[in-house]
Amino acid sequence: MDTKLILTQDGSHTLYVPEMDEHYHSRFGALTESKHIFINAGLASLSQREISVLEVGFGTGLNALLTALQAGREKIRVSYTSLEKYPLDPQLVSGLNYGNLAGEGGNELFRAIHHAPWNTPLAITEWFTLEKRETDLTVEGPSGIYDLIYYDAFGPDKQPEMWSEEVMHRIASATHPGSVFVTYSAKGNLKRMLRSMGFEVEHLPGPPGKRVFTRAIKM
Fold it and tell me: Is 77 helix (H, G, I), strand (E, B) or coil?
């Protein structure tokens, strides 16, 4: 896919896919959006000191970077598994400015995340272990059980197959009571599906440019 690097309103990059007329992150602020939804409402909502994370949509690696940084600051051991059907071209990744914005050591950490091999777990830091899996969730469900789900696929109107009942069942089967599911989407159909699969669902105030997003807890 033809993909273009653009600058969002908080100074962080995102990618635009003209073929789909879709952005990887909010144009109002990629970094702001990811911190608000996945870190503050997701990772920071859990109290345990060892957390397993499943991310759907590795994309630019921004969520992985922010999670690794948070894990180091809070001394939380995070095992992070990320699913991606279409890994980005390394040349495109090299233009992203997330490492510069992350503070001291950010560039080295961002490079380590992207240089990590696919389909093999690797300890990136003392606190953060990463496994990037090149796979198609519409064909094969994730293995393992996770404390936290980052659902960051392209939107339901652009990639509806990723928001089907079959795929959501695969995600639900990888959770346990107390697992947290977070996503930027607030579609009513998603809410109904999650409730039917045993989740308690809430809409939380969104980041700039978005009224609400979804957090759900497996009961």
Answer: strand
Could you give the 3-state DSSP secondary structure of residue 111? helix
Q: 205: helix, coil or strand?
A: strand
Q: d(Cα 64, Cα 113) in Å, to the nearest integer? A: 8
Q: Which CATH superfamily hosts domain 34-218?
A: Vaccinia Virus protein VP39 (3.40.50.150)
Q: How far is residue 110's CA from residue 100's CA, in Å, rounded to a whole number? A: 9
Share of the chain above pLDDT 70, in %: 100
Question: Which residue do the tokens 């989740």 mark?
Answer: 199
Confidence of residue 104 (pLDDT cuts 50, 70, 90): confident
Q: pTM above 0.85?
A: yes
Tens of pLDDT, residues 126-138: 999 999 999 999 9
For residue 116, give both structure tokens.
């990590």
CB atoms within 10 A of CB 171: 22
Nearest to 181 by CA among 45, 77, 49: 45
Q: How far apart are CA 18 and CA 3, in angstroms?
A: 7
